[in-house]
Write the structure tokens for this entry.
Amino acid sequence: MYCDSIFPNTLLTISLQRDQILTALLPSSISVSTQFNGEPRSYTRFNLTQNMEGENSQVEMKLSSDMDEEVGGNGVGEDHNHAKEPYVVHRPAGRTPKSVCFMVATVLLIFIISYLIGYLSHRKKELAPPSCSRSTFEESITQGSVKMEADPVMDWNDVKRLLDEKMSASSFESAFSEFASESHQAGSAGDTVLAKKVLGRFKDYGMYTWTDEHYVKLVDPPASGSNMVTFKGSDLGTLRGYLAYSKTGTAKGAVLYGNYGQMDDLRKLQDKNIALDGRVLLVRSGKISFAEKVANAAKLNASAVLIYPADDRRIGGSTQLFGHVHLGSGDPYTPGFPSFNHTQFPPVQSSGLPSILAQTITVDMATTITREMEGKSAPTGWGGVGKLGDNDDMVTVEVNNVLAEKLIVNVFGVIKGFVDPDRFVVMGAQRDAWGPGFASSTVGTSVLVELARTISDMVKNDGFKPRRSIVFASWSAGEYGSVGATEWLEGYLSSLNMKAFSYINLDGVVTGFPTFKASASPLMNTLIQRTLREDFSFRYEAVMEPLRLNDPVYPFITFSGIPSVSFRFTTEGEEYPYLGTLDDTREKLYGATSNQVAKLAVSAGQFAGRIALRLVHDHLLHLDVEKYTRQIRTHVFAINSKIKKVQSMHPQLLPKSLSVQWLMSATGSYSRAASSLATEIDNSNLEDAELCRNINDRIMSVERDFLSPYVSPRESPFRHILVGSGSHTLKALSDHLDALQIDHSDANADLFRIQFALATWTIQGCANSLAGEVWSTDNMI
């Protein structure tokens, strides 16, 4: 019965007396009270006692009259006693067939009235339109919600058809015009204007909306004058571009050319017996992030780094370059915890902040330097530079950037699910840019808003009912290292890693064509390839890339344990050169795509929409837990081989008693748990909502459980042992073995053994969680 869904496990106590029945039969005395536990009058009272601890509730329906008060029949005290009694039906004396009929009719009448009241109140809650008022994240997502009685199924082909029909190039052209801005740097007035526009659109679509504010440390160029670079005593010119979070001050040293600044490039310099101590390293952009270039140079004791644009064919000689050099994400002055205004922490800073100066220069400035450099010849393929630089090629770098605290605002809207509303996928895009930022922010924001419009319309007008919720997020301070997104992750870590099952990044989704590139958690690879194969295989060539530190999804995966994907349409063999410059305009992107930006934005929206909708449409999450098995085994195989080499070469460092048996056992446990789950899914009844929720929770736990519980999020925020960074990762174990093999001074055998044991138990813990109940764990260690 429907009534059972309203009052589950309810014990019904009906106390009927003859006088009450006779009184109840009078039409004038029949009314319904919605006040529980009230004082008895001439009405029918429903007494609901709800036990929040999960015990059986009691509902008392009692007919009462003023006559009872006169004879003391049903006083307040007696009423409370009835509420605690077990199921009792009081038989009135002298029962006649007529009175029995009256009693039965009255009971049926009461039952019908209670049924209608429960049904109408339930429908009112289910069909109430979403509020557009501002609310908090917790209120909007994690609050309780009534589950639907019926399974909200729409054929998947119909879902895809609706998505495609509602997205058009013309709608994107309009969105581009609405969200384009010449100036919207993080924390600026322009950024605030765009935030209000996005929030307004979310409200127009009838979504639940809220905002999230953070006070963060951002970096501005010098308040007066500019940073300065001189070569052999001559000023190279005005510098408008800068690198946020660079160390400030002055550094002087002989210039040394270092290609892209990768460690392999710097080792080639060392192979030529060239020391980096005190040198000013000149490198070109590309291959790795600015922060990694500076960190590599600092490791080898360089005094400063100069970075210039690599693509001098398409980019102007005077184009200024902007970026940041924080080897991490989020506000570097609140590492591991959120930058809320009310939080009070002692002064602290991220270990990822550079210890040396860093500054960008133009192509023309770099040419002035390289043209006059002397020294040894550069390796072949190093950007056409002839000489590497000599001790007489002196450069002075002066950095006077200003650190400022600013308010940034993240904007959210949510379409709530109909079965598991507290489980959700997040789609997000950065809203800020150094300049116009058409490719870096405008296109992504437009795709975000158009997807919100499309899916909202599918829910309101076409009967689509997602099982799980979809959160749309507009981030601020993305150009400073995903600051807005990371602060949100830090602020709601305990809620997010238990409830958010995926993140889809929309930054920079169109930078060229016809190649499709994506980087993602291995859990999402199968879904990505399936989506491309089914819907995009005849239009674009797909390339999967490794996850990088400067990828906006990196903190979602490695800090919060949320499976994520970034993707973009680009040109094979070359990157869009205008990102991080003031030339990232609508005209430049249209030129790079042969005027197909709107068409490509539609494709980007369809791809992201299919991924998100598939994750909220089906009974089970399409996250492939078996994908991690091969990756773990690859690392274990490499570690095993290197341990044997070290034991052979330096038995005093790693004794023969150290075995990889336990690491292999943990790997086997994970493999068996993943295979067992796949078998369990094949044999499960997908109509069992609780079973599906249990399986989905186990799938969601995988990424989270690969975060090492043995390191501090403040000291090592990217705790994922497979794709994160730090001494706790399997890659770090392998690198440590390389150092032990050559008996490097930084190698520490005892530290390695500790890291080895902790990594083993992290994998075993993930396997145990994936197995399900504690009695189902495969703990062979």
In short: Confidence is low (pLDDT under 50) at residues 1-93, 122-135, 142-150. The first strand starts at residue 10 and ends at 15.
